[in-house]
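Quick start: read one record
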Amino acid sequence: MDNNAVNIMLIALGCSKNLVDAECMSRILKDNGYSIVNDIEDSDIVVINTCGFIESAKTEAIDTILDCASYKDGSHRLKYIVVSGCLSQRYPDDILKDLPEVDAVLGTSHYQDIAEVVGILMGHKGSEGSVNGHFTVRRVSEPGSLDHLLTDKDVSTQSYAWLKIGEGCLHRCAFCAIPLIRGKYHSRPIEDILTEARNLAASGIKEVVLAAQDTTNYGVDLYKKRSLAELIRRISEIDGIELIRVMYGYMDGITDDLIDEVRDNPKAAHYFDIPIQHGCDRILKAMNRFDTEELITSRLAMIRQRIPDAIIRTTVMVGFPGETEEDFSHLKDNLVRWGFDRLGCFVFSPEEGTKAYDMPDQVPDEVKNRRYDEIYELQREISAERTKKRVGTETVVTIDSISEDGIFYKGRSYGEAPEDDPVIYVLIPDDDTNTELEIGGRYPVRIVDCSEYDMTGVLI
């Protein structure tokens, strides 16, 4: 069969790092002549790149598989389902046994095999094996590969692209299964990252978002030192790249040279994404985190002293085993004191293979959910106060889309990360109604109004 006649749809679930992996598979498939489509009705094969980090992510993945399986009823074009990513890495045999609709599983080190696996399925040949008489392909081994990690520029949005700089994690947080799924930390060679960044710039991408399980540890394995500041500096030398954003750092990796690079480099976004997970030393220690209240306090003060307009995002977890009401109150008090601009919250989910899975003093679900609601209500108030301070300021906004009613352009400044943060609604002045803004373009905007999260601005 001609590869061009085979239509493949890719579905990326979970975090932005999973999106990068899906983009890499898209590039490989296109290089091998396959057609990428966005409608399951037109698909011969669906590739579902899954997340397996917490229970809700597993449920979403299984629901997506079953939804796609309904199109394998003989009245639609769909013939095969491939499941890749974290869920495949953790539970490959269970997937093939319990979900007979799935025809192939690829672990996190086997994205580069996607074209070969598609060829095997379409030709129904090879000696892969079978489960319950059903021909299947299974490619799962130890995690950690960074082969073929080049983003497909056609899958990335017109305004930004995620750029993965490492894989795996060297931390061993008690609640986290990522090291089990992704393996130990591997930094990508700086020249490989620069090559990809140049390709993205050549395709018109102006903003790159650096991502890894821990971006602040970039280089420790390859170069025996933290090298994120150098990487930002090298990327900023590429013509066409106008904004460099860093996501997923650790507080102990927010070093003097990194802060100085972000402050002094005109292309570096004054934006820090630093998941702290909790604000109580007793729980942080139980989580096996390096952070302490003192460290968090001092690093936040350092950032704000040197970069007064910095926007800081974090993530916390509630309901970790043994978390008492006193611990939770301590967390809330510190969140008020620290005043993060953005905050995401997780409810603890016991993950097989982690230290916290069978810890004593598990917190009841109803208590976890109440604490989750309290954190978001508290952060709503904090975010409102932080956002009000930006009214009247001027900033450069990247235009991502147009609102459904056609009235506003929707975009982001240095202070809003794609997919995670609020947006800025941009209006054209009444006396300039003929102006049209380009998707992916960057324009000066004055912030004139705000809600708790979103802002409204007028084109200058």
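The mean pLDDT is 90.
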